Amino acid sequence: MSVPPSILLEGAILGLNYGLLAVGLVLIYRTSRVLNFAQGQLGVVAAVFFVKCYYDFGLDYWFALFLALGLAAAAGALSELLLRRLFGRPRVTVMVATIGLSQVLFLFTVLPFIRPKQLFRAFPVPIHWTFQVGSFLFPPADVLSLIVAPVVVVALAAFIGLSRWGLAMRATADNAESARLSGVWVRRTSTVAWTIAGVLSAVTAVLASPGQTGVLTQVLSPGLLLLALLAAILGAMVSLPVAFAAGIGVGVVQEVLLWNITNPSSGSATVELILFALLQLALLVRATSLQKGSRTFERSSWAMGTASFRLHVDGLRKKVGNSGVGAAFGIAALLPFVIGVGHSYLMSQVCIYAVIALSLTVLTGWAGQVSLGQFGLVAVGTDLAAHLGASVPLPLLLPAAGIATALVSVVVGLTALRIRGLYLAVSTLGFAFFMQTSVLATPCWTVPLLHRQVCTGLPNPQSTLISRPSLFGLSLSSEQAFAWFSLGVLVLSVLMVRTWRDCGIARRFIAVRDNEVAAAATGIHVVRTKLLAFALSGFVAGYAGVCLAFWLERFSTDTFDPTVSILVVSMVVIGGIDSISGALLGALYLVGIPAIFGTTTTTEFLTSGVGLLAFILYLPGGMAELMHRLGDLATGVTKAARGRWGGPEADEGCGEDPVAVPLTGALP
Amino acid sequence: MKGPARLEVQDLVVSFGGLRAVDTVSMTVDPGEIVGLIGSNGSGKTTLLDVVSGLVPALSGAALVDGEDLADYLPEERAAIGVVRSFQECRLFPELSVEDTLLLTEDARKTTDVLSATMQLPWARRVEKAKRRAVDGVIASFGLERFRYHQTRQLSTGTRRVVDLASIVLAHPRLLLLDEPTAGIAQREAEAFVPLLRRLQEVTGATILIVEHDVPLVFDLCSTVVVMQTGRLVASGPPEVVKRDQRALDAYLGASEEALRASGPLSDQDQAPGRAGP
Fold first, then answer.
1. For a Cys-Cys bond, which of A85, A234, A534, A603 suits A246, CB 3.0-4.6 Å?
2. ipTM over cut 0.90
3. Domain end (from B170, B191, B208)
4. Contact assignment for B120 to A307 by CB distance below 8 Å
């Protein structure tokens, strides 16, 4: 079966987009060691502005293009200035910040002076040339891509290889401090790289837009970015030519696979499965070269340097804290009496999202494994509820779904034994896509060799309906009842996670996160501990998925869009990544604020994007830290009220080193 | 298994790429002995410790504890049979408090399964209480009470070393591998380390193999001194003998006779023949 050349060429043209994006990713990565999740969004803003200039302002194509590229360059440079203060932090922190950045950039596309009046107009193309291969006519947009993309990449390669900026970029990437000492303007170099990446992204968006069928603002979606990441990783995040070529390769592979598939309904699922396998394979094969030498930095996991994990506090402060938490839960328990149906529905949502956020507190906050695919795990629980919800009683279904999801999570975690930090995030994001587009979207499939049908996906991927069960004879069908049920699940989850925190499990996670070698030398099983973190996190996510299913009652594959996974990450980061109250506060913030101002993508991205950037940049401890300070304040007030405002407390911080002390004290 | 362990290193070879970091080294550390390992930078001392604690695989040869080859043991399994080590940089766990760091050592020895910990079953509570009692004892005897709730990253290097020693006491070692325990702390504190390490040996009863740059400290503390140079073992024996060994002096002491004199004055007969002044 030979593939017609038109298919190959079409794949290559599609791949040019991936290649260009990949080149931008590699460029930024090489200079600032940042995996830039905003790479696509930088260009989208420019493309939207371009359409505005062309149609609404009636400008000439080339002048409009010039303005759009200028906007992208400015956006790139400004992004670098904004994120610059984070460059000393662990790489995953910066990566999550770029997620926030991409959400904020999305907001620019809705600004009145950037958003065109009509989003669905044909994207302008300056040439009218077409050509034919076989029976397939290639439109002018493809011709434009074929001309412009290679020229841009060759020009960029020449710039980096020949100019002194290029040398500075390479030096900065290898060792920023040494480069600085040898007279390289590291900061200026990094700004230049981001500016170029912005322009590159704009070129990509302008080239990719004419061929798109969807909304203009979605042109470089996370799915496309993931494929670009695949190409960039194939180039080991270093080589521009390899990344570009790999991008074209990925495009060709995708087109050929699609062409080969005879059954259109399950076809795209198979393509996604193969692409997911390719991504995992690329990560595993490239893992060694991605993580060696000067790149030890990327191995580092999430460590915020915050003090919110198990703060020690005195008796009175503890009382104040406990009564605050108790009061909050007490009020929450009474709420369904007062609020209406709509708000009870919202309250259930906050509770369920808080439980999902807790699962990330365990995995990311404590074990330091950044997962961008947590909703993929939640989907496992939901899927089980869709299949078993009617037959298995709820008290049995919750733990069963938890255990099943824990097993899936451990399998996902197996890759974490080899892939770390940034690349684990990419791998888990791939998992989330795979769950949505492959597993959930295929109701039934035939096991090869056994020839037996298994039904693992959603019974109806477009719209699955289930009805709420009853719990111990009490029906959960009313929104009020369900709000109480969700609150109950949340309270039990908090108690369980607190036990993990206080009884030695969390400290094992943190020890392995902070210093794997020392933990092993102490006698902590590193592999076992890592997998345990995935299992516990998966357990929580699994039963949260069951609750989510019964809360929604109707869901589709769109419910599990990977952007939701990213939203959950924002939740824990904004709330305070390593504290239990942080997960709760984050859920309250990210579900509550958009609900007040009307739940649209804009308000959601506004709260999460701005929140992410603000908290990562200025208050890494998150909202939990704010609450903690509030508690300190309340304690101070209580003390004053009791008239116990004693003398200054003993200074504990900078005492003398106790090296001489053990000699006097008796050893056991 | 109780009491100090015996360490035998047989024809050990470790190579990184083309470089032979450890080149056919054999040595024996008898139970209860304190052996010092000295040598210039890059002579393979730390690599030798890494092999014994399982962090670096040997190309050939073996490290035996009580006659048993450790090749198939993971680092964490070696800890379980009493092979405990400290690290040169003593980073410990930056985000854990001193109390949690010490509790971690107890966790490794008395693991409770997740299910009974989650359900707060009576035995899980009992074990956790026992762990806390043991840690309380060590905190009191090392004078760490003030630092109990401080995160490790907030501590000075000296205090971190003490925390490290405290967790060593908790780990009940049978063979203790110390990698430059005085690196990064002041001279005055380093001097305090000799009686402290002696005490440590008395309390734990472990065999100790110590890598150290502070040569006077090693000569003061150890019953046997082993000298390495570029991966090879060049001299070994009691301190008095090694001090007079020409090859040992060339390998290490020659270069830093000044340093040797600085903290521990050499008497005339201690000085190397041929190197003594006029």
1. A234
2. no
3. B170
4. no
